[in-house]
Amino acid sequence: MTTTRMRAEIAEQPVALRRTLDALLPAVPGIARLAERTRQVLFIARGSSDNAAIYGRYLVEAHTGRLATPAAPSIATAYRRRVDLDGVLAVAISQSGKTEEIVETLGWAADCGARTVAITNGAASPLAEAADLALVTEAGDEIAVPATKTYSTQLAALAVLGVGLGADVDPGDLRRVPDEVARLIEETESSPALAAMVAELAPVSGAVVSGRGIAFGTALELALKLKEACYLHAMGLSYADLLHGPIAVVDPRTPAILVAAEEGPTLPGTVALAHRVTGAGARAYGIGGGEELAAACSHALPGPRLPEWAAPLGLIVPGQVLVEALARALGLNPDLPRGLNKVTQTD
Description:
Shape: globular
Keywords: Aminotransferase, Repeat, Transferase
Distance between the termini: 40 Å
Organism: Thermomonospora cellulosilytica
Number of domains: 2
Order of helices and strands: HHHEHEHEHEHEHHHEHEHEHEHEH
Protein name: Glucosamine--fructose-6-phosphate aminotransferase (Isomerizing)
EC number: 2.6.1.16
CATH topology of the largest domain: Rossmann fold
GO biological process, one term: carbohydrate derivative metabolic process
Radius of gyration: 19 Å
């Protein structure tokens, strides 16, 4: 079997995560000092980084009691309107740190009164230099266009940010993440469910990917990867939104991929959705969710044995392995999706 760069970079994640956590956990006191006079978090991101920011938003709101919101960069770059950001911690996320729109929006946020944090894999990037505090991930060079190790290390940086903001979590849980990711890669690749899911997804043109709460960003990121690398019409939705109408698209030709941590308040709803999907004669594929979700699904891949707040750092990994394997089965090169570049510039 030919090893793609995407597959090689998936395998590098345990080391990249360990390096990133070693580098960033000592920054917790500095984060706390910077955020002392702030009350709200504003996330600035695009693409995979935006999906990481969804995790950050749920983590901050569920575990620190602060309001967290996504920025609309066009307010800064197109409308050029000033907004009162006094008391706001603006967090810009970009793997390269070179996306001009994100750099400009972070500068705009500072000019509007926000304190600023950059999360980037580029230590000497314009984004890192523009921020009051840079949380530089240690993913190393990423060659494949679909983000894998840069995405998971962004999640690690956001988890550290949450700890710095006073999240009611055990930071020691993060030390378990690299070994869990290594286990997930090995168990996913040896799972009979992987081959079955690839075989059943290969003929379809579309799929729904769903999760809720802290797992919602994982669902969005997996849907994006299926679009990028497999050219699949994948729709990422919260299961709450899915039940409001789009559930109608799930049928024997349009399966659902459901992601969940092994614990937490959204797991029962995810399991109920799996039963509804299979009860309608469609296929439901689980990622994570423990034995309960696996029993409700047609096939299931393992998830991380981590508490809900830290689970997304590993939950995306089986999905990455699935996407890479499906792309190869379709005769596609997941390293170089058509029409995409590693650094995307937006207006």
